[in-house]
């Protein structure tokens, strides 16, 4: 593995052996809150927001010829899985100069720059200046997107196609914000924005591999995929992107942020899925 680092922004791990036309990215495992974050609440509350261990669970990428990119900054500071236009203007002091197009994420307090932790705890007791917001976009969001786009474009140029897996985790249990309060979520939820970002062969391979050891796998249920798979997919042009949400209940103790007894089994299932997808990508 050859690791490139863009300081404070991302790691990019490139395979050393033969390449497969496969790129993975983990946008929500970063641990860094830059100094200008300045929340009004305790950092311990902000620190809990993370797709814990996902970069490790998908760590088989390089062994299978794939590139793996992971963000180093926290999603609550700026979320790379949102469009820059998905900005909550209530949080901005002064006139925002660019177009705004809000989504349902705004209502949940989880748009480009998060307003709320867990949909209820306000992060700031101040508004952010236009300069602060632009600094976050230009220093973190844009370089992350540029690296992912370059990896996808380079792979597509070399192979004439590229498969992209966008890697996430979700809380074990549903909640009111998502209308599934008290229900245990599926072990994995695969998102293709209702079939628009990836074709059937890619989706079916992922679903079959994740379910091979008896895990429940849902497709396009609640978590259908957001900006990163939307922006870079174009199935007709040989660019397919798909999101995977791993249920934290099958790999970690969410309260104590520690791997649980199922961690190694879950990692083995994900590793096998990556191997099958790499084979599919190479065979085409
Ligand atoms: Zn995530």
CATH superfamily caption: Zn-dependent exopeptidases
Small-molecule binders here are:
zinc ion
Structural class: alpha/beta
Helix percent reads 25-40%
Main beta sheet: strand number and arrangement? 8 strands, mixed
Q: How many β strands by DSSP?
A: 14
**Proportion of β residues?**
15-25%
Strand arrangement across the biggest beta sheet: 1-2-4-3-9-12-10-11
Structure description:
The protein has 284 residues and is an alpha/beta fold. It has one domain: 3-Layer(aba) Sandwich (Aminopeptidase), CATH 3.40.630.40. The chain has helices at 43-47, 54-57, 104-107, 130-159, 200-211, 227-232, 263-283; strands spanning 2-6, 10-14, 22-26, 67-71, 92-93, 116-117, 121-122, 128-129, 162-170, 188-191, 217-219, 239-247, 252-253, 258-259. Helix 5 (200-211) runs antiparallel to helix 7 (263-283). The mean pLDDT is 96. The protein binds zinc ion.
């Amino acid at each position: 593995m050859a690791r490139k680092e863009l300081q404070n922004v991302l790691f990019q791990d490139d395979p050393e052996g033969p390449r497969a036309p496969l790129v993975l990215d983990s946008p929500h495992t970063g641990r860094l809150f830059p100094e200008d974050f300045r929340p009004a609440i305790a950092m311990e509350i902000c620190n809990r927001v993370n797709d814990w261990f996902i970069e490790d669970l998908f760590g088989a990428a390089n062994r299978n010829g794939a590139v793996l990119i992971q963000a180093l900054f926290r999603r609550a500071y700026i979320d790379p899985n949102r469009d820059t236009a998905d900005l909550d203007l209530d949080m901005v002091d002064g006139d925002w100069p660019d177009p705004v197009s809000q989504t349902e994420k705004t209502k949940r307090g989880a748009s480009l720059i998060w307003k709320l932790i867990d949909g209820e705890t306000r992060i700031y007791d101040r508004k952010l200046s236009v300069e602060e917001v632009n600094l976050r976009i230009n220093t973190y969001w844009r370089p992350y997107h540029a690296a992912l786009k370059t990896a996808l474009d380079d792979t597509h140029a070399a192979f004439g196609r590229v498969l992209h897996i966008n890697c996430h985790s979700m809380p074990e249990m549903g909640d009111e914000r998502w209308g599934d309060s008290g229900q245990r979520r599926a072990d994995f939820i695969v998102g293709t924005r209702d079939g628009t970002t990836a074709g059937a062969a890619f989706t079916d391979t992922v679903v079959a591999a994740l379910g091979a050891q008896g895990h429940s796998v849902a497709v396009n249920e609640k978590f259908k995929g957001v900006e990163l798979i939307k922006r870079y997919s174009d199935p007709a042009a040989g660019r397919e992107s798909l999101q995977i949400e791993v249920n934290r209940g099958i790999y970690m103790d969410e309260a104590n942020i520690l791997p649980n007894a199922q961690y190694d089994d879950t990692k083995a299932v994900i590793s096998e899925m990556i191997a099958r997808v790499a084979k599919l990508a190479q065979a085409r």
